[in-house]
Design brief:
Structural class: alpha/beta
Largest sheet: 7 strands, parallel
Number of helices: 15
CATH superfamily of the largest domain: Glycogen Phosphorylase B
Distance between the termini: 14 Å
Radius of gyration: 21 Å
Strand content: 5-15%
Number of domains: 2
CATH topology of the largest domain: Rossmann fold
Shape: globular
Length: 382
């Protein structure tokens, strides 16, 4: 089978990029011919994959989004593939993986949390272009099938678009269970904590995500401040990994007297080192179709604290394999959940349950279920 995978950036770091890499490796291992159409491909490190660099226009993000879709289609039309599988908002594909979720729902979540953003978002050329592209993507004459990585995302697509529900297939993310493993602590924990300037008794909360507003970093800081209000001597340290502007959050941390407790480490390539160094994972996200880092942290044996707005909450059991918050804007609820992580025995119990959950989502399951969708499309074509 000749398969084209499409994603704007395939430099390892984001959840969608990781999903592309996992699938490309599994398809190649099964003997399929895999072509990757991307603009940034330098760091993905995939052997045996044919790369096609897609040019994009410089400047505002709107131009990058539209030009990638245009040039990707132009390049794909010059080739012949059994399956064109897009992980990006494009307009020429057989299968679209809605890993970025439903943009309408993200905007609704954003406006509930930040009502002042609504007027500018309503006239934003970028948002209007993405919404128009999604209206086209979620139509039968553009996408033969859609993969949603959570039932939450499937419901959102069905709610906003006239797209047949039986053509929306839920395929959960997969995770590398060897790369992300609790035994990494034996080898990586002490040197990584030393490199980060962490004390042995620090209670380290790890936040991983790019796009700090959507991922809930500000809510995270409010929750920590609330958790510490009655327990000021708990040595909490927050490590923030990912791309984003730290300045507003450093100012917020200063106002909350948390500035000595937070460290921004940027895009950390060997992210398993941070999982090994941490005591718990926290992601009070405003909106996520299914944050892949949730599975990574669970596979590493970390207790998980996230929100019901994260599609990964579907596979977590509150109080057993994770701690779930109804709304990230509720600092009292979030602070209470963080206090539940103060107890080492509770963290240990949650962490082992999280690992047991993660082993149900190996990479080969993700690839196998995706290929079942491929076969349905091929049957339809024939």
């Amino acid at each position: 089978m000749r398969v084209a995978l499409v994603r704007h950036s395939c430099q390892i770091g984001g959840g969608a990029e990781q999903s592309v890499a996992y699938l490309a490796r599994e398809l190649g291992r099964r003997g399929h011919e895999v072509h990757l159409f991307a603009h940034d491909i330098a760091e993905i490190g995939l052997d045996g994959i044919v790369f096609h660099r897609v040019p994009v226009m410089r400047g505002a993000s709107l131009f990058k989004v539209l030009s990638f879709a245009f040039y990707a289609a132009s390049l794909l039309k010059k080739e012949s593939f059994d399956i064109v599988h897009s992980f990006e908002r494009t307009l020429y594909h057989d299968l679209y993986r809605a890993g970025d979720g439903c943009h309408e729902e993200w905007l609704l979540s954003r406006h509930r949390a930040f009502p002042s953003r609504r007027p500018l978002d309503a006239v934003s050329p970028r948002h209007r272009a993405i919404l128009a592209m999604q209206r086209r993507i979620f139509s039968s004459d553009c996408s033969r099938r859609v993969i949603a990585n959570s039932w939450k995302t499937k419901r959102e697509i069905a709610r906003h678009y006239d797209y047949p529900e039986d053509r929306i297939v839920v395929v959960y993310n997969g995770v590398d269970l060897e790369r992300f493993h609790p035994r990494n602590r034996e080898r990586l924990r002490e040197p990584t904590r030393a490199a980060l300037g962490l004390a042995p008794d620090d209670l380290v909360l790890l936040f991983v995500g790019s796009g700090f507003e959507r991922k809930g970093l500000g809510f995270c800081l409010n929750g920590i401040a609330r958790a510490l209000s009655g327990h000021p001597r708990i040595p909490i340290r927050l490590i923030v990994a990912g791309k984003g502007n730290p300045r507003p959050y450093l100012a917020q941390a200063q106002a909350l007297d948390l500035h000595e407790r937070i460290s921004f480490v940027g895009a950390w390539t060997q992210i398993e080192e941070l999982y090994a160094a941490a005591d718990a994972f926290i992601l009070p996200t405003l909106y996520d179709s299914f944050a892949n880092v949730t599975l990574e942290a669970a596979a590493a044996g970390l207790p998980i604290l996230t929100t019901f707005q994260n599609g990964a909450s579907e596979v977590l059991e509150d109080g057993r394999s994770g701690l779930l918050v109804g709304s990230p804007t509720d600092a009292s609820e979030l602070g209470g959940k963080i206090q539940g992580l103060f107890d080492a025995d509770n963290r240990r119990r949650l962490g082992w349950a999280a690992r047991e959950l993660a082993v149900q989502f190996p990479v080969d399951r993700y690839a196998r279920e995706t290929m079942q969708v491929y076969r349905a499309i091929l049957d339809e074509k024939s």
